Amino acid sequence: MVEAWYMDESQEDQRAPHRQRPNRAVSLEQLRRLGVVYRRLDADNYETDPCLKEIRRAENYSWMDIVTIHKDKLPNYEEKIKTFYEEHLHLDDEIRYILEGSGYFDVRDKDDKWIRISMEKGDMITLPAGIYHRFTLDENNYVKAMRLFVGEPVWTAYNRPADDFPARKQYMKFLAEEAH
C-alpha cells in the first residue's frame, strides 16, 4: 500500500525519505483532495492484467511505453535525474505505473508544502495537469515504470513558476472547489 508524508526541509540526498519528526502521514483521501489518484495493480501480470486493460479503456490511455531509470539503462542518467527532480508541471495528467523497483513522487499541497509519495512495484499514480511535482529515485536507485498517455505523448515539463498556463489555473480552481 502506498505511503505518503510531509517532507522535512533538509537539502541532503534527495533519495532519502525526508520524513518530518514526528512523521506527518498523508492519507489517500488527502491525496485525492489534491487530485492525485492512486491505484494498486498486479505488476507481475501487467501485460495481461484485465484491471489495467479496463483502466486504459476507461481513461482513454491509448499510448504507453516502459522506461527503466538506472545508471546502466538510461542514457544521460545523471542529467535526467536532475531534470526529473526540478519542480515542474505538465499540461496533461502524468500517469506512472511502477513495474519494478521504487521511487518518490513529491507533490505540493494547497499550502505549497511538499508531500512525498513512496511508490513501489504495483503502484499506479495519476498526477493532475497543473500540479507542481517532481520525481526521484529512492536509495535503491532503480525503477522500471510504465508511462501512459491520452493520445500522443507530450514530454514537456514547465519549471516553476508556470502559473499562467491554463492547466495551472484549472488546477487551482479545482483546489478552491475542493476546499468548500
UniProtKB/TrEMBL annotation:
Protein name: acireductone dioxygenase (Fe(2+)-requiring)
UniProt xrefs under Pfam families: ARD
Region forming the signal peptide: none
Cofactor(s) needed for function: Fe(2+); Ni(2+)
Cell location: Cell membrane; Nucleus
GO BP term, pick one: L-methionine salvage from methylthioadenosine
EC number: 1.13.11.54
Region feature Disordered, mapped onto this chain: 1-21
GO cellular component terms, semicolon-separated: nucleus; plasma membrane
Reaction(s) catalysed (UniProt annotation): 1,2-dihydroxy-5-(methylsulfanyl)pent-1-en-3-one + O2 = 4-methylsulfanyl-2-oxobutanoate + formate + 2 H(+)
Superkingdom, taxonomy of origin: Eukaryota
EC category: oxidoreductase
Keywords annotated in UniProt: Amino-acid biosynthesis, Cytoplasm, Dioxygenase, Iron, Metal-binding, Methionine biosynthesis, Nickel, Nucleus, Oxidoreductase
PANTHER family in the cross-refs: ACIREDUCTONE DIOXYGENASE
Topological type in the membrane: Peripheral membrane protein
GO MF entry, a single one: acireductone dioxygenase [iron(II)-requiring] activity
Listed HAMAP family: Salvage_MtnD_euk
